[in-house]
Amino acid sequence: MYKIYINETPLLLLDNTNGGLVPTVGPELIVNRYSGKAKSLLQYADMLEKTRQYRQVSVYSKDYQQLVKDFESNYKLIEAAGGLVTNPSGKVLMIFRRNFWDLPKGKIDKGEHKEAAAIREVEEETGLRNIELGYSLGETYHTYRTDKGKRILKRTYWYTMKAPDQALTPQIEEDIEKAEWVDLPSFLAGQPIIYRNILDVLQRVH
């Protein structure tokens, strides 16, 4: 399964190679077989960019690899990396940027390793130092458009990290207003405004 968030709604690309089950259709769900035409996938993207009335959209195919390839062909791929950082008290480092709570992350520089980029971005966006890299939390995908309307697919690689307690300095020039250590259960119980792909990452910690 390949999950891409488009305007906060997940678009799922599903492997139906062996005739497996596909999601149930419902009033807030769309499930369709892939037509085989790459441009047809943009119909779903355009729809989701205009509305959040659907809980989920799924497209399935018996040629899953071609489905993924065709979807990606419609976008420019940008790769980023970031971290879910905890301190000795078990609190999680969150940032507040552009009216959403988020995790520190940023684009991978040319020739840079994913792990190094993740640490660098956390350092730059929060002022954190002495970071210990942990394990991979996998990837998330979301789309957006540039000011000129170009379609971008962003793949972000996530890692757990540990760091000692220290003062945080949000990177104002990147529109980060706050960088805070939070008790995650209490924080989430307050129903903060947070991106759904970030919620996915928070739920992967073990």
Supply the key terms.
alpha/beta, elongated, 206 residues, four-stranded mixed β-sheet, single chain
Q: Based on DSSP secondary structure assignment, what is the total number of beta strands?
A: 11
Helix share bin: 10-25%
Distance between the termini: 21 Å
Tell me what portion of residues adopts beta-strand conformation.
35-45%
Radius of gyration: 18 Å
Strand order within the widest beta sheet? 1-2-4-3
Uncertain stretches: none
Overview of this protein structure:
It is a single chain. The protein is an alpha/beta fold. The strands form 3 sheets. The protein has a 4-stranded mixed sheet with strand order 1-2-4-3. A hairpin with a 5-residue loop joins strand 9 and strand 10. It starts with a strand and ends with a helix.
Brief synopsis:
The protein has 206 residues and is of the alpha/beta class. Helix content is 22%, strand content 38%.
Describe the secondary-structure layout.
Elements: E1 2-6, E2 9-15, E3 29-33, H1 41-50, E4 56-61, H2 64-73, E5 76-86, E6 92-97, E7 100-102, E8 105-107, H3 114-126, E9 132-145, E10 151-162, E11 176-182, H4 184-189, H5 196-202
Parallel strand pairs: 2-4, 3-4, 5-10
Antiparallel strand pairs: 1-2, 5-8, 6-7, 6-11, 9-10
